[in-house]
Amino acid sequence: MLENFREAFDGIRSHKLRSALTMLGIIIGIASIIAISSTIMGTNEQIKQNLVGSGSNVVTVRLYQGDYPFESSWSTVPEYVPLLTDETLSEVRKVDEIVSASYFTQRDAYGQIWYGNKALSSGTIYGVDDAYLSVQGYTVRAGRGFTENDFSAFRKVALIDETVSAALFAGENPIGKPIEIRGEPYTVIGEFTRASAFKPTVNTLQDYFTYNTSTGGKVLIPMSTWPVLFRFDEPVSLALRAVSTDAMTDAGRKAEELLNATILKEDAEVRYKSENLLEQAKNLQELSSATNRQLILVAGISLIVGGIGVMNIMLVSVTERTPEIGLKKALGARRRRISAQFLIEAGVLTCLGGILGVLVGVGLAYGISKMSGVPIFISWYIIAATVVFSFIIGMVFGAIPAYRAARLDPIEALRHE
């Protein structure tokens, strides 16, 4: 076996230019596959990070009416949907995939939040519990957060984000200042922001509209004061922090099942559903990968062309080495020995082409990334698989030349000129 490999390398060295041209189709095919697959995997990871966020792992579970979020501001909540209790939240927190959970409710606030004569043109009011900030990954950058007394004493206090602070206070310190929310006075006690800021990578206009769906500010108030603004209690939503990004789907599904178990109607139209960002990311990944899989298929055609080139050159090699084959057979070499020699030579030829193709493909992937800004991900699994596959191509397309060499008649072969 080692002798066959030695002879294979000797044959390639003795015909360097011919071997290089023969490997060209394999090099182009492997390089194309490596470059395309690296770009696909990098783009898919970018989609996942843009939608899910960098390590936030937060899943939202809220009421849906059919396929659309239920809007309590426009519709009356059905009687069969009870308010969620602390016992239900406790059960949700026991789920293995969930680190922490929080109640909240929200309403859009267009022109409903004022400071003096300035109004917030767009934004959202959130009624939250004491765990909401930590679940969402927020930190108070100025002032203070909510205390237990803020909830129990029904204090009309608020936290605002940087967007609201800039829009209403324009550089003025907002802490301690009064704002009006739907005509009710609230005191700003703090300004919050994300503990670890994450900005999605936006390379195209489509990326902008996909990942920038909300530019309004956020105002948080204690959930205990929510009825002061809206005059009644409402079914709340749930924010869950999963143990990992990959656990988000299971965390949302299990919490969804626990919440729906409280609904008093079996075939209810209004039910709790989790906003599965991970599933949305997968759908976008599949959409972007469909076209790229076709590109890989096209790149694979060059491998077939390269394989045909290998078969052609190996047939030429059989013809050139007919006397040598005849001599080996006359000295007792069996057909299996002759066949293995040419199969291994073809495999080594395409394997070298595969290795060179990987190097070219990786370089090409980095070049594309640098010029276009598209992220890449180099998979060692794919690299190893392509090198092995290139060797298999050589074995497959070298089968016919190997069979022809093994079937040569030794007498006719020795007489060949």
Secondary structure layout:
Blueprint: H1 2-14, H2 16-52, E1 58-65, E2 68-69, H3 86-93, E3 98-108, E4 113-115, E5 118-119, E6 123-128, H4 132-136, E7 138-143, H5 148-152, E8 157-161, H6 162-169, E9 178-181, E10 184-194, H7 205-211, E11 217-222, H8 226-230, E12 237-242, H9 248-260, E13 270-275, H10 277-320, H11 322-330, H12 335-372, H13 380-397, H14 399-406, H15 410-415
Parallel strand pairs: 6-11, 8-10
Antiparallel strand pairs: 1-2, 1-12, 1-13, 3-6, 3-12, 4-5, 4-9, 7-10, 8-11, 9-10
Helix pairs in contact: 1-12, 2-10, 2-12, 2-13, 10-12, 10-13, 10-14, 12-13, 12-14
Quick overview:
Helices cover 54% and strands 18% of the residues.
Written overview of the protein:
With 417 residues, this protein is an alpha+beta fold. It folds into 2 domains: 2-49 and 284-415, no CATH class; 82-262, no CATH class. 54% of the residues lie in helices and 18% in strands. It contains 15 helices and 13 strands. The protein has helices at 2-14, 16-52, 86-93, 132-136, 148-152, 162-169, 205-211, 226-230, 248-260, 277-320, 322-330, 335-372, 380-397, 399-406, 410-415, and strands spanning 58-65, 68-69, 98-108, 113-115, 118-119, 123-128, 138-143, 157-161, 178-181, 184-194, 217-222, 237-242, 270-275. Strands 1, 2, 3, 4, 5, 6, 7, 8, 9, 10, 11, 12 and 13 form a 13-stranded mixed sheet that branches. A hairpin with a 2-residue loop joins strand 4 (113-115) and strand 5.
